[in-house]
Predict the 3D structure of the following.
Amino acid sequence: MSDRKPINDAMDHMNGIEGYPTNVDLKSLPKPLRYFGYFFISFFVLFFITFFVLSMIL
């Protein structure tokens, strides 16, 4: 159980119904999913840098 205290009864009720992840450890994800995330982020960073450099040149 989380150490967080609900703001009011409505928030406590919504937390009881929906719940929310706590103490998420991203390094515990499976390797293929981690590598896909690294690839995805790297792709967009390289795309942004390439786009910025090309827009400066052209």
Observations:
- Residues 26-58 form one domain.
- The two ends are 56 Å apart (CA to CA).
- Helices lie at 9-18, 31-57.
- The mean pLDDT is 83.
